[in-house]
Model the fold of this input.
Amino acid sequence: MKGRKIICMPLFVGLSLVLQTSCRGELPGVHGEEDIEVNPGDGSAGDEVTTPDSTAMMAGNIKGFFLLNEGNMGSNKCTLDFFDAVTGRYKRNIFPSRNPNVVKELGDVGNDLAIYGSKLYAVVNCSHLVEVMDVRTARHLAQIDITNCRYITFHDGKAYVSSYAGPIQISPEKRPGKVVEVDTATYAVTREVVVGYQPEELVITDGKLYVANSGGYQYPEYDRTISVVDLETFQVTDTIDVAVNLHRMELASDGLIYVSSRGNYYGLGSDVYQVDPKQKKVVGKLGVPANEMTLCGDSLYLISSGWSYETERYEPSYVLYDTKKHEIVNQNFITDGTDREITIPYGLAVHPVSREFYVTDATDYVTPGYLYCFTPEGKKKWKVRTGDIPAHFAFSEVTLK
Amino acid sequence: MLKQNKFVIGGIVLFLLTGGEASARIEPDSLRQLGEISVVARTVSREVLPVQQLDGVRLERLGAHNVADALRYFSGVQIKDYGGVGGLKTVNIRSMGTNHVGVFYDGVELGNAQNGQIDLGRFSTDNMEAVSLYNGQKSDVFQSAKDFASAGSIYLQPRTPVFGENERAHVKAAFKTGSFGLANPSVLWEQKCSDRISTSFNADYLYTTGRYKFTYQVEEGYDTTAVRHNGDVQAVRLESGVYGRIDDGYWRVRAYLYGSERGYPGAIVRNKFMHEDRQWDLNTFVQGTFRKDISPRYRLQWKGKYAYDYLRYLADPEKDETLMYTDNRYRQQESYMSLVHGLRLSPVWEIGLSTDYQFNTLNANLKDFAYPRRHTGLAALAVSAHTERLKAQASVLGTFVHDQVRTGADRASNKMEWTPTAVLSYQPLLAHEFYIRAFYKRIFRMPTLNDLYYTLIGNTRLDPEYTDQYNLGLVYTRFFDSGFFRKLEWQADAYYNRVEDKIVAIPTANAFRWTMLNLGEVRIAGLDLAMQASARMGNGFYLDGRLNYTYQKARDVTDPSSEFYGGQIPYIPWHSGSAALTMGYRDWELNYSFIYTGERYTSQANTTENYLLPWYTNDLALARSLPLKQGNLRLTLEVNNLFNQQYEVVLCYPMPGINFKLIAQYEF
Done:
């Protein structure tokens, strides 16, 4: 009995001490940047590499691209990656180690990314800010506070940002969105204009700004309009009726605006509409669903996750539309069967010169996604793991230091 | 009748504590603590399944003011805590998920048909006789079908009045104050009306600003401190019971009301440290129990309940311009009835047959809402065999579910499920309180009404989510008449669980639209170790300690083609444990407790971005009892999180650093 006595009591104290000393390091460390070689030859993923170097990527003086990972809402896991075309290396999560003094890193839910001049702009939706970085270093330059900001575009030294958080006018339920004008030299908000409900992407042509209103908060009465803003007066001059729940926008070389509708998720599917800004009306539709679309020359790339409530499966589609011929030229622009490997195609970008293209897979939204690089012919070149929900691209003409 | 039972009560105390055979060696003061359980005691079978319990005295010592705090001292349990007094606190037993935990209040299950979660932070442990946690189920054959219906169960047993020879009333008044702007007065009044009837009334008011400082800091980087905002809570709890005794049985009725208003403190993300959304709750129920031994071989139990719950959530962009305007109101009703027959065939064999029926309704001011009504029928047949060394039990539960929805809406198909449990306990040496125990249980949880019918997200095609549990364990208890140690107990259980058809949310067309699917698969291998010791010294010095350790490997095995196949599931640490030590000398008592949660990840992708540091807290409490007039005054000072550790249980929800509490309690 005596023996047990001696064993037992120290056990309590002892274990406590063990747990105490086996404890954590003083502070959480800054998340380091991970540097992965993907091109040539990402051996780790066992990928076949068709082009042994990155000359295709570097065409047109493009040195690489940034990729913004959205991260799930409330997780503060928006991250930024960079693909260096010169070295063929992929740098994951580059923001924290370059900006250790920015409190809580890049923020919550990245929603858009763009380069204008020498600056990189990340629109961080649930952190209610636009993070402005030096495009050469990805170091913090400024933070522009815009509540519930969504997308960004530029014109004449000004940034235009769509935001859900317009003024509360009649009732808090029916609250319109706005577009905010920001001076890119001073980062000051210069003008604001009230637009439709929950505005999303925007394009600028001919002195006018067009913004797609979704009305995502107004279910089941989605918005179905594009607001037209005169950049001179910064007033809404027209409202163009299109379809419910508008989202993406691209401006074609013939002046037509392509705008995607998300549908209402109940019977009414997603589609893409052609809007003539001169006539201020819809002139056609593609009959193709799109979660994301991007225009390169006259090629409009459209991807859709194709979720079916009937089969409870994703049936993704990868459609190529020619905006000059006005026809679908390819029903599946991924030609080597890699599309079967992708769960939810989410982000999309096309190299403006070489026509190599990039598709991201958001998988289940709660684990890291993947970035696929394809040749212009639609054959996989390489694949790399990204952050959570990889989504938005910005091609850069300078190498990240 | 009641006096005779005293030994049996003792037995139950021991059973609950030891999971082993009863003996009469028990301090008289613990008898009082068990109160009305005495009546239950005679008919309760031997506990052969793993059980952990904290009685009222220990709850008080540990400074466990709500049930979630108390459960941290049990092994095999993970608490999800969003921080502060008002933050949501849910429990997950052996990594199977919150929805697999049944929570019983005074013997009747607390329901939440809407989302299947019970916020355990709202249940005060004041006036709680015992908080017990059972893996598998309570190993009794004479119990409601609902008692068989969860993968793990927590029983909250509120105090029931027990009066001495010349006593007619008890009054207990307490006041708690301290950090977070806490003010918490409460009063308990118990009255003996006649030899057979007594009543109790309990009122409790709680106010807290919910404010506390938290710091986010990284190595050689930012270091920011802010105050948690919108964590205020105002809550009232009123409770009343009537307790009656009849020949060979008892009855009781309980009415409960909880009303609160609270803020949602929200996730702390970059540039967004304050939130303004709010919630109002009203939870009420009336429940009754009747139990009688009709003959030495046949006994009967009836239980009934009616509950009404109201919840309002308000997000007002006029208060916080980042918010989407939302003003949702949910109203739930639950009616429940249970009838149990117990038949003792012989000293060895016993049979229990129970039938329960439950009706739930959920109304909400959501657009296109389905207004679901759910009928649930449960029937359980249980058989037990007790010999000198071997105790065995087998039960089968049938569950029948029928949903109704408003015209035009989709409804879930009818469900009929049969699930078995088998339990075995063996005592190799009669001279020693040493037991080997094993159980197998298969059970499921129904998709909640939210999973099925929540506008835009719900999926009416969902199937139940199944769990299988295999457990093998040992218990060894020793009592000593003299010497330093008076009691030592060891428990060890190894287990393997499978969760199949786990209901998970997945995105559909885009990040705005999610739906629910039976997609997940989880495999859990775990080990729970527990040790307890009580020691005495002649000069009035006593020592009481408990130690728990849990190892869990909980792997996500949903998709073999995923890079993250086999990753540890979110928020489950591989290692966790707790230690608690009480030292008493005459009127003084000093308590120390230590809680440890090891490293874990916020996602099944166990990458550096998702890594969470281990955390551990040290709590200290000093108490003094003073006789005052005919009563007793007890003063307690608590210092929690002594070393001011900054930590998160849930990502982006910072927990409080060092905090204090002062408690004054007077009882007569």
Remarks:
- Chain B has two domains: 1-41, 42-667.
